[in-house]
Amino acid sequence: MSIPAISVAMSVFNGERFLAPAIESILGQTFDDFEFLILDDGSSDGTPTIVRDYAARDPRIRPILRENRGLVASLNQLLVEARAPLVARMDADDISRPDRFARQIAFFAGHPDYGVVGSRSEDIDEFDAPYVVTGPEHPETHEGFLAAIENGWPLLCHPAVMYRRDLVLSVGGYHAAFRHCEDLDLWLRLASVTRLCSLPERLIRYRHYAGQVSSRHATEQLVGAAVARLAYDARQAGRPDPTADLAALPPLDQLDDLFGPGAAAEVRTRVAPGLLYSRAGLGDHGFDLLVDYLREGGDRNGMWRTVARLVSFGEPVRAARLAATLALTTVAA
Question: Is residue 28 domain-shared with residue 136, that is, in the same domain?
C-alpha cells in the first residue's frame, strides 16, 4: 500500500449532528492524495453508523471505532496511526474549503523551515450563519506568531492546521495535563523547535455553538491556557518545565508549589477577564476564582456589570455574593 501525502486526523464523540458535512468537505478536497482517519471515541449516538457508511463508500477513510478515552488520547492515537509525513487536523463540526489541503501542502513545499501551518477561519453558528468574532487574526508569519504569544492573542485554529508528524511526535504529542487546551500547549512547545503560522486565506468554516467543548469547559480551558503560558515562560527562561510529566494539572492553589510564589495569583489575573461574559464559567468553579481574584486586589472594571449579568443568567445568589465582595473590597481599598 502506497504512503499518502497527508493523513487527515478527526476524532469525534457524539457528533452526528454536524458530522456528514464535515466528512464531505474532506472528501471534496481538490488535493486528494490522503488517508482519512476517523476515530469514534465511544459515541452513543448515530456517529458510528455514519462513519461506517462513509468508509464503505470511500476507501480513503480508515475508521477506528472504540470505547471512550477522551480527546487527548484520541489525538495521540491518530498521530501514531497516521502513515503520512503530514497530518491535517479536522474537527467533526467544521467545514474545510475545497482548496484547503492544496494551499497548505504547497506552503510546506516552499517553506521547509515551517513545521505547522494553519489558516484563518470563517466563523459560523450552528445554522451555518455568520458568527461575529472580534479580536486579532491568526498570525501569518512566525514572527507574528511569537508576538501573539507575548500579547495573549489567538495562535492557531486547531482544526485548520497541518503539521509535520515526526516533529509533533518528537515533542511528545499532545499532553494529557492540558485537557481542553491541549492544542495551545502543543503550539507553545513547538515554538522553540520550528516555525508556525497561518495562511491569510479563510480555509475553514469554524463552528460556534453551545455544546462545543470550549463552551462547556470554559474555566478549565482558560486556566489550562494560563498554566501553559507559565510553562512556556519557564522554558524560555531556561528553567525546567514543571508540567512536562504531569498527567493532570494540580488545583489552582498548588501552582505556587509547582512554579514558585505568585503563580496562582498570576493565573487568576490571566483568567478573570475571560470569565466576565462566560455563562458556563460564571456558573462553575470559575466564579470562585473570580471572587478570589477580587479579594487579591484584582481589576474591578466591568465587575458590576457582571453582577447584572449573573442575575440575567438566573444566578441571583452568585450575583449577591459578587456584589458583596465588590462592596467589601471597596471598603478595604
Answer: yes
